[in-house]
Design goal:
By secondary structure, this protein is mostly beta strands. The chain is built from 1 helix and 11 strands. Strand 5 (46-52) and strand 6 (58-60) form a beta hairpin. It is globular and about 45 Å long.
C-alpha cells in the first residue's frame, strides 16, 4: 500500500521561506513520480512541482519557477519542496502525491511535465499540510 506523509507547513510572512517534506513508502522500485499540488480556498487543486524519483527530472509551474526548488533524498524516500520568497497567493493546503512511472529511458522527460497538470494523474495522496503566507 502506497503511503505519503507531508510535513513542514506553517505560517510565514511574505518574503519568507518554508520547506515541505514528503515521505513515500510502499513503492516497490524507484520508478515513480512525486508531485506537490496546492489548493487555495475556493479554488481547484493545482500542480506546483513534480519530480521523477529515479532520475530527478523536475517540473515547476510558472507561478513558482525561480522561487521553489524540488529535490529528493537518494538515501531514502523523501522529497523536499523548498519554498522561498513566499507570496500571499502561495497560501493553501499543499498535498504530496505519488504515482508509478515507466522505467523506459527518457520517458520521465515527457511524463513529468504532463503528470503535473492534472490531479487525476496521481493515484496516491497525502493528507495535506497548511501553508499560510500573511503579515
Amino acid at each position: 500500500q502506497l503511503q505519503l506523509v507531508e510535513s513542514g507547513g506553517g505560517l510565514v510572512q511574505p518574503g519568507g521561506s518554508l520547506r515541505l517534506s514528503c515521505v513515500a513508502s510502499g513503492f516497490t522500485s524507484d520508478s515513480y513520480a512525486i508531485g506537490w499540488f496546492r489548493q487555495a480556498p475556493g479554488k481547484e487543486r493545482e500542480g506546483v512541482s513534480c519530480i521523477s524519483r529515479s532520475d530527478g527530472v523536475t517540473y515547476y509551474a510558472d507561478t513558482v519557477k525561480g522561487r521553489f526548488t524540488l529535490s529528493r533524498d537518494n538515501a531514502g524516500n523523501t522529497v523536499y519542496l523548498q519554498m522561498n520568497t513566499l507570496k500571499p497567493e502561495d497560501t493553501g493546503v499543499y498535498y504530496c502525491a505519488g504515482e508509478f512511472l515507466s522505467a523506459d529511458p527518457g520517458w520521465s522527460r515527457q511524463a513529468i511535465p504532463a503528470m503535473c497538470q492534472m490531479t487525476a494523474n496521481f493515484g496516491s495522496w497525502g493528507q495535506g499540510t497548511q501553508v499560510t503566507v500573511s503579515s
